[in-house]
Amino acid sequence: MAVLAAAAMHAAWNAIIKIRTDRFASMSLTTLGMAVAATPVLPFVAFPTLSVWLWIIASVIIHVGYRLFLVKAYDAGDLAQTYALARGTAPLLTTVSAFLLFGEVLRVAEIGGIVLLSCGTFLMSFRGGGHARFNQRAVGFALITSMFIASYTLTDGYGARLADGAASYASWLFFCDGLCSIVIGFLYRGRSLLPVLTHEWKTGLLTGALSAGSYGIVLWAMTQAPIASVAALREASILFAMLISVYILGEGTGPWRIFAAILIGSGVVALRLG
After folding, report:
1. What's the pTM?
2. Is residue 203 in some structural domain?
3. What are the pLDDT digits (tens) for 86-130?
4. What tens digit of pLDDT does each residue of 211-237 get?
5. Residue 58: which residues within 8 A CB-CB, separation 6 or more?
6. What is the pLDDT of residue 210?
7. Residues 210/13, Cβ–Cβ less than 8 Å
8. Is residue 207 pLDDT above 50, yes or no?
9. Measured CA angle at 236 (ends 234, 242), to 5 deg
10. Are the C-beta atoms of 184 and 28 separated by less than 8 Å?
């Protein structure tokens, strides 16, 4: 249930980013909000060892690429399609990589759940969108985003296991990632970023808190269960994103999107039972 709550929070902050006019600035502000949320926790968690810092640094670098291509995907396509493809492809990549790198073996029900979830994801992305034509640019950016998602999932899952508690790893990761993101933002935009920070700081704190809470839960869960299983269950956020896209953003629905949602929901149930 904790991971499902994290999924809902994840879909919510992504929807807020999607509707902003300046998504690059909003994403930078969200990451800064995560750092603000993590700062009060730092005195109460362990300082990472050198080996853990290497995983944190790697994760920060990967997250830079993830945010860049996520913004590009949202600029090119609608929320339900781009979000579904980016998030839903990642569990397949994570499952294979976790097996090859860490020797993680999943139960039959968990593998079945991941397959169902991924099939629903592809169906929603390619046949369930509100636009009739195939958006090659949006799909390309979404697929690249999925590679970054799988990469930081594996990096953070292993790093959190090495750390003295998931809270320590998450807090220091959010703090460092936030500082890095805002520095890159100013290097890229200069002083033009200041008006966004001034006018949208409340939104940044909200999306940052949602993002930090969501991923903090996932990092804890990955220290308790297989990384691939947690990563896949987290993608129940695709269902929440679909509801937001239809009922709040008005992006449209249809039989293919409904069928895709059923497949995704079935995959979530299989993972939960597995």
Report:
1. 0.80
2. yes
3. 777 777 788 888 888 877 877 787 788 778 877 877 776 666 555
4. 888 888 889 988 888 887 787 777 666
5. 155, 159
6. 82
7. yes
8. yes
9. 135
10. yes
Structural domain boundaries, residue 11: 2-105+134-232
How far is it, in rounded angstroms, from Cα 3 to Cα 178? 23
Q: What is the pLDDT of residues 29-38, one digit of tens each?
A: 888 888 999 9
Residue 222, domain member (yes or no): yes
Q: What single-letter DSSP state applies at residue 137?
A: H
Q: What is the dihedral of CA 96, 97, 102, 104, to 10 degrees?
A: -20
Look up residue 39 and give its two tokens.
């700062």
Give the whole-angstrom CA distance, residue 127 versus residue 80.
11
Quote the tokens at residue 138. 């949006």
Provide the residue count of the chain: 274
- Reduced to 3 states (helix: H, G, I; strand: E, B; else coil), residue 246 is helix
Number of structural domains found in the chain: 1
Q: Is residue 121 part of a domain?
A: no
> What is residue 268's three-state secondary structure?
helix
Q: DSSP assignment, residue 253?
A: -
Is the residue at 154 inside a domain?
yes
Structure tokens belonging to residue 265: 């929901």
> Encoding tokens for residue 148?
């970054």
